[in-house]
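Quick one:
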Amino acid sequence: MDLEYLIRRSEKYSKPSSIFLFHGYGSNKEDLFSLEQFFPKLYTVVSFDAPLNLPFGGNSWFNIDYSDIIENNLDKRYKEINESIEMIISNINLLIEKENLNKEDVTIIGFSQGGSICWKLGLDYSSKFRRIVPISSFIHPSYLNHDLESYTNKLIYCSHGSLDEVIPLKLVNDYILKLSKKNDLTFDKFDSGHTISQENLLRLLNWINDTAI
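Output:
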């Protein structure tokens, strides 16, 4: 399945670096694409629509209900998450070829459910992605291929609002701290809810500049 997407092409014409964006549950490709104006013009920026249409509007990367978060487990979503992941990788590979992108410098950024997709992509398919940026997202070993301790040397920026009521910080804090032991991981906490605050965006942009090739 070909995913719909929006693209801002780089001002660099030969094999530019790229940033792929993954929106949250019930949103669409226009949401995070509004951030493209802030990213350096040397990057090609792509924002995907998730494949599942929701009855009340918007899209989803996988089905979920609040019990998944309360129970702190994504085990029952494992199959459909992997189906979505395979679709995403196929679409990214096609765009890398079509747009002549630098496959050695691909960054993935996701918010909320899109951030959970980023964790899965970046940890289990790390050879394809140089930088992983999950924001205000849910992570749990149940939907990963390996134990958290086995993931090493990943370049990660993640952030969370201490006032987040959709995905409470306490549900993800321990897992992120475990990952920080063997990875180059920056974890910022902000006095905000389930959103990307102005301060969060500024810290993210600084991190992108600091870790650029």
